[in-house]
Specification:
Distance between the termini: 132 Å
Radius of gyration: 43 Å
Helix content: 40-55%
CATH architecture of the largest domain: Sandwich
Number of helices: 3
Largest sheet: 5 strands, antiparallel
CATH superfamily of the largest domain: Lipoprotein YajI-like
CATH class of the largest domain: Mainly Beta
């Protein structure tokens, strides 16, 4: 056998030994495996803690958004509270009505029959320091609103709401500052016996000092 034939087994033995040594070096020992598991467990624990914090932050954001929506709704109610006023001809006293030029106090003085409807005389108390030279009422009127204690209130309220009439009514009377001023509204289509609800808003852009 030649030299090459004798050297082949020796080379194979060396290669096998090298592969075996490399495999031993790459195979983790018990301590390495334990350390890797501890690192994995720590990373997993930290990831869960971050996920819990993110969930809590999302809940807090949702709660803050809800609180903000409630606050905006309440502010809207406050800002629009006196933009219109509801008057009951059967009750005494006045209601506050706000306009772009200031606030007014309005009671119903009397109600009289007129054609197929009613003529309503209002006292308009001008609480501003300017005389208002006419303006426009947006009026909505009809029978008295059903009571919450009424049986089947929801249906009755829906029918009542649909029965209301509305109309824009211009008035030319001057509303003098710091005084009660008479303004008469003619509201058709409802006799005095059925008249029980009047809702008003007012617009004006003409004042004098």
């Amino acid at each position: 056998m030649g030299r090459q034939g004798r050297r082949a087994p020796a080379i194979c033995t060396v290669l096998i030994s090298a592969f075996a040594l490399a495999a031993c070096e790459r195979a983790p020992g018990p301590d390495q495996a334990r350390g890797a598991k501890e690192r994995f467990d720590r990373i997993e624990k930290e990831a869960k803690a971050l996920s819990d914090k993110l969930d809590l932050a999302n809940e807090q954001i949702a709660q803050l958004r809800g609180n903000l929506a409630d606050l905006e709704f309440q502010m809207g109610l406050v800002s629009s509270r006196y933009k219109s006023t509801v008057l009951d001809p059967g009750e005494r006293g006045f209601s506050r009505l706000d306009t772009s030029v200031g606030s007014f106090a309005i009671p119903i003085q009397d109600v009289a029959a007129h054609a197929d409807g009613v003529r309503v005389r209002l006292h308009v108390g001008n609480l501003t320091t300017a005389t208002v030279n006419g303006g426009t009422f947006q009026a909505k009127w009809g029978p008295r609103q059903p009571s919450l204690r009424d049986k089947d209130f929801s249906r009755k309220y829906t029918e009542w709401s649909k029965s209301l009439r509305d109309k824009r009514i211009d008035f030319l009377e001057d509303l003098k500052s710091g005084a009660w001023n008479d303004v008469t509204l003619t509201l058709p289509g409802l006799p005095p016996a059925q008249f029980g609800h009047l809702e008003l808003s007012m617009e004006t852009n003409r004042i004098s000092l």
